[in-house]
Design goal:
five-stranded antiparallel sheet; alpha+beta; 10 strands
């Protein structure tokens, strides 16, 4: 499978510091060569015990959202970009802060052309974005693919507290090689979770056809920690 890589850009001054009570923005545009050329180092590992919340309010938990999009809107690197990567990310963040997470293009809706709604033969980088309601602190939000931590190890990433929306927006990019680091055949537990999201029986899962990359974001510490996650489901074939 041919690999493609997102060009390394330095995104400077993407967002101005937000004013208001406890307003805070953190952006991290550092590039770790080991991540882009090999794979992420699995440290720290994602805690397994905090409650996982997906795009909804659970009992006693604030609402969370997590979504995933093809970087620059392309499922393949073959299409020439209409914008620079910096401009595309800047426009995405501005729109997200105004209108919320876009519904169109969210691959976590699992409406792809492959089995189980998988994305069929994807060869693209991704942009993951989401929202934690009721949070102000951006320092305790961490990014994962499977158990591999990607804090500060992607080309584009950031966290932004919105006083108007009373919560924290976040975003981070993943190269094709990054999400392949955590891609695996799903466990029975993961199959059950994915099928429950789509309201379909687990028996309908096509074994050994689809692989998944579990993408997760944690917020908080200790017993107060919550995890927002979903699965990038892919299938390859002729």
């Amino acid at each position: 499978m041919k690999k493609h890589y997102l060009p390394v850009f330095v995104l400077a001054g993407m967002m101005a510091a937000c004013s208001g009570n406890n307003a805070e923005q953190q952006t991290d545009h550092s590039v770790t060569k080991a991540i882009l050329d090999t794979q992420a180092q699995p440290q720290p590992q994602m805690p397994a015990d905090p409650p996982a919340v997906k795009n909804d309010s659970a009992a006693g938990q604030p609402a969370t959202q997590i979504a995933c999009y093809y970087f620059m809107g392309n499922s393949s690197h073959d299409a020439p970009p209409e914008k620079t990567a910096e401009k595309w990310v800047d426009d995405f963040i501005s729109k997200m802060k105004t209108d919320g997470l876009p519904h169109a293009g969210n691959v976590f809706l699992h409406n792809g052309a492959g089995p189980m709604g998988a994305e069929w033969n994807p060869h693209s980088d991704l942009l993951v974005a989401g929202f934690f309601e009721g949070r102000k602190d951006t320092s305790d939000i961490h990014f994962f693919v499977d158990d591999f931590n990607f804090d500060g190890k992607t080309v584009f990433s950031g966290k932004y507290y919105s006083p108007e929306k009373n919560g924290v927006y976040y975003w981070f990019s993943l190269t094709e090689q990054n999400w392949n680091v955590g891609r695996h055949l799903p466990s029975d537990k993961e199959k059950t979770e994915i099928c429950a999201q789509r309201n379909i029986p687990v028996s309908s899962w096509v074994d050994n056809t689809c692989t998944v990359a579990r993408i997760a974001v944690t917020a908080g510490k200790g017993k107060e920690m919550i995890r927002s996650q979903d699965y990038f489901i892919v299938a390859f074939g002729e």
